[in-house]
Amino acid sequence: MLACDGARAARASHPLHPVLRELFAALEKWTPNLDEIAAFASCPWVVQSSVSPLGVNLADTLRSQPERRAAALALLRHLGKEVDTVAGVQLEDISENEWAATVSSSNAPPDTVAEQRSKSRLIRGAQHFVQQCLDVRIPEIPLEKCWLAEEDGRRSYPLTYESPTQVPLVPNHPREAERGEWIKRYKLHEPDLTVSEEVALICDLAAKEMEADIGVATAVLGDRQWFIPPVRHDSDSGVLVNERKQSFSSHALLSGNKPLLVRNAQLDVRFRHYKVATATSGLSFFGAPVLAGDGVIVATLCALDSKPRRSVTTMQYSVMTALAKALAAVWRDEFDAPESDDEMVKDAPWTLRLRSPRGSASD
Question: Per its UniProt record, what SUPFAM superfamilies does this chain match (predicted)?
Answer without folding.
Answer: GAF domain-like
